[in-house]
Design brief:
This protein has about 270 residues and is an alpha/beta fold. Helix content is about 35%, strand content about 15%. The chain contains ten helices and ten strands. The strands form two sheets. Strands 2, 3, 4, 5, 6, 8, 9 and 10 form an eight-stranded mixed sheet that branches. Strands 1-7 form a two-stranded parallel sheet. α5 links the parallel β2 and β3. The longest helix has 20 residues. It is globular. About 45% of the residues are buried. Bound molecules: S-adenosylmethionine. The site of S-adenosylmethionine has 22 residues, from α2 and α4. S-adenosylmethionine (SAM) binds next to α2 and α4.
């Protein structure tokens, strides 16, 4: 099945017999919203690649640092977070509204379990707004058409695509989706991405993902840091560029220097 076909044929049904990325991610992050099949697949992948749990946590920590920068120094007041995941600690709206209570956040995800937990993502501050779209990244125009209910696209928006583009197997389609989304953003908007790679752990990561692709859904496609950097073409990439997400402006440096790299690379860029 192609990416586009599976987008339109998706049924709003929670399948507890197949491991799913949102639930396995929740498991690695220490959450409770997962089933036995997710824990089993999560444990198997972690046995093959023990660093995967640190990777999931480094990904989530990057989300916090990136949003604190965007809502703080960069002054962004609107966020579109596609591929939200199950509610966990430090959800996008919580981090953004800690800095700017008036921040407006739109979440979008295509997993029915995330939809069923959306209430926990809609706990906006009184000054701000949160909305949730049951939408598919492979249909970006549909997400944009619903996001205008909440976001003013004539003003800067931070588009967050965290841990989701590696679920689009066709690389040209993934680039096209990002281009179509960023084309709708006003100058001064931002794009934040993190994406799995095998640049650090090589064959161990590739084998773990091959196993995931046998037992889990949706499938994952690893991309090189150079391929990940291409998502930012036409935008001004902020320092330190595309790096392992543990090394994107780390809050604390260990005594030995930089934190250990994980196989999740990220970047933040500004639309000129
Ligand atoms: C690994 S989780 C990442 C969650 C969160 N963004 C984070 O970084 O912690 C990936 C999320 O993307 C969602 N997802 C996968 N493919 C998607 C698609 N085509 N459209 C919308 N959401 C998708 C999954 O349901 C899941 O919630």
């Amino acid at each position: 099945m192609t990416d586009r076909q599976s987008a339109s044929s998706q049924k709003p049904k929670i399948d507890t017999t197949i491991a799913h990325t949102a639930r396995i991610w929740n498991y690695w992050l220490g959450g409770k919203d997962n089933f036995a099949v997710d824990r089993e697949a999560g444990d198997k992948v972690a046995a093959m690649l023990p660093s995967i749990v640190a990777q999931a946590r480094a990904d989530r920590a990057f989300l916090g640092r990136a949003i604190r920068y965007l809502a703080g120094e960069a002054g962004v007041r609107q966020f579109l977070d596609i591929g939200t995941g199950l509610p966990t600690v430090e959800n996008t709206h919580e981090v953004a509204q800690q800095v700017a209570p008036e921040a407006r956040i739109v979440y979008a995800d295509n997993d029915p379990l995330v939809l069923s937990h959306a209430r926990a993502l809609l706990t906006s501050s009184p000054e701000g707004v949160c909305d949730y779209i049951d939408g598919d990244l492979r249909e970006p125009e549909k997400i944009l058409a619903q996001a205008v209910r909440t976001l003013d696209f004539t003003r800067p928006v931070a588009l967050m695509l965290l841990g989701v583009l590696h679920h689009i197997s066709d690389t040209d389609l993934a680039y096209s989706i990002v281009r179509r989304l960023t084309a709708a953003l006003a100058p001064g908007s931002f794009l934040a991405i993190n994406h799995s790679t095998s640049a650090i752990h090589g064959a161990a990561m590739e084998e773990a993902v091959a196993h995931w692709n046998l037992v889990g859904t949706p499938s994952m496609t690893l991309r090189s840091p150079q391929q990940i950097a291409r998502f930012f073409d036409g935008l001004d990439l902020l320092e330190p560029g595309v790096v392992s997400c543990s090394r994107w402006r780390p809050a604390l440096r260990s005594a030995g220097g930089q934190p250990a790299e994980v196989d999740e690379f990220c970047g933040v860029a500004r639309k000129p």
